[in-house]
Here is the input.
Amino acid sequence: MASVKGFLRTVTTPEFAGVRFHEITAKTVLNRVPESSQMPFRWTVNPYRGCTHACVYCYARDTHRYLDLDTGEGFDRDVVVKVNAGEALRRDLSRAAWTGEHVALGTNTDPYQRAEGRYRLMPGIIAALTETRTDFSVLTKGTLLRRDLPLFAGAAEHVGVGLGVSLAIYDDELQQLLEPGTPTVAARLSLVRAVREAGLPCGVMLAPVLPWLTDSVPALDDALGRLADAGATGVTVLALHLRPGAKEWFAAWLKQHRPDLVHRYARLYGRGAYVSPAYREFLADRVGPLLRRHGFGPQNFRTASEGDFPQGSIPVKVPEVPEDVPAQPEQTALFEA
Here is the structure.
């Protein structure tokens, strides 16, 4: 890390056993999304790289490779902290060339992971966005967002603010196996309620849906029922995609915990990162009636190639699906548990 521009120091602390924080100063924190992307936003901010949530399936794992850091345990334990994120963003947004487009946070690594409790970068970021009248959205699994609800409510008086909670797994045992560093299901449902009580909309990413692990009718029905009860104002459903870094890490997890699914996943994903069109159609047919049952409506389902989002939800990262992925209708029967 010493070779990275702006590197300051590496910090360890007893409160974060086994975690190394690599503190850097950043010249800029505003990242432009390529024009070819299907994302419904063009600008992102990520105050951290790496994430102690340690989600086995996290698609951002491969970003650690660019820093010569490990994409497995290293992604969970080596967290890069842009300690001047608020100040750098204020400079970015004060430039004459800035046109005030929407800025999305939480599209790569979580801005409210546990490190935020130590570094408190988000209040400065929220202030910079509000002062420059920049609409923004935040997607998180971290209940630390509750700390800043007054700041979000104040910002919403001046700019468009979208808040979203990522909550994919509703079985407590499975959640701890796949997302060992995240707040519990109950804690995140409580966060949804707190956001709504603060007078703000709260969309939920019910993603990723994990084939043969969380895609059964009872599992999806339970999840949507609990989200409706918590007051979620929109739900976006996406199937798991496995990019390099995450794909290998998730395959190792399957081999250890669900060896019976190793062959199924190999057939479903092949050499690619995305489920087949046949599986996306299967999931859409399954989840559509459940969304209607719980008052979310069919418009709240998203296939992996769509770029629009439900009212009350927030812009989130949608994986682009190559157009030449062949349909495999013969696999449909295999999707049933």
Notes: Residues 302-334 have pLDDT under 50 and may be disordered. Residues 227 and 318 are 21 Å apart (CA to CA). The longest strand covers residues 202-209. The chain has eleven helices and eleven strands.
